[in-house]
C-alpha cells in the first residue's frame, strides 16, 4: 500500500503542476499498475482511461498506443477479451503508423495473450 500511496502522490503532483503529457501519462500508468497489483481492477481501468484521455488531448500517437496497451492488459486481467481485442487492435494501428517495432512486438505479445484467454474461455464453455 505504501507503493500505491507513492504513485497516487506522484499522480497528484503531475496533475497539479500541469506537467508535460508524457509525465502525466507515466504517472497514470504507474498508478494503474499499482492498482492492478492490488487487484483493484476498476481503479486501474480508470487510471488507464485517464491516461488515454491525456494522450488524446496531447495528440501523441506513442502515448496513445501505450495507454491502449495498458487498457488491453487491464481488460485481459478481468477476462474482458472483447475490450482487450478492441484496445490492442487500435494500438497496433497507431504503432504501425509511426513504425515503432518495440511497441509492435509488445502488441503482438498482448494479442497472443488475448487469443489464449479467448481459447480458454471457449474450452470452458464447451466442457
Features:
mainly alpha; 0% strand; 127 residues; 6 helices; TPR-like_helical_dom_sf; single chain; Serine Threonine Protein Phosphatase 5, Tetratricopeptide repeat
- CATH topology value: Serine Threonine Protein Phosphatase 5, Tetratricopeptide repeat
- In one word, what is the shape? flat
**CATH class term:** Mainly Alpha
Number of distinct helices: 6
Radius of gyration: 15 Å
Sheet with the most strands, sense and barrel status? none
Strand tally, please?
A: 0
Assign the CATH superfamily. Answer: Tetratricopeptide repeat domain
User: Structural class, from secondary structure content?
Assistant: mainly alpha
Strand content: under 5%
- The secondary-structure element order is HHHHHH
Number of domain modules = 1
Estimate the mean pLDDT confidence: 85
What are the segments in which pLDDT stays under 50 over at least 5 consecutive residues? Answer: none
Distance separating the two termini: 39 Å
Gross CATH architecture: Alpha Horseshoe
Q: Work out the helicity level.
A: over 70%
Give a quick precis of the structure.
This protein has 127 residues and is mainly α. The chain has helices at 2-16, 21-37, 41-58, 61-77, 81-98, 101-126. InterPro entries: TPR-like_helical_dom_sf (IPR011990).
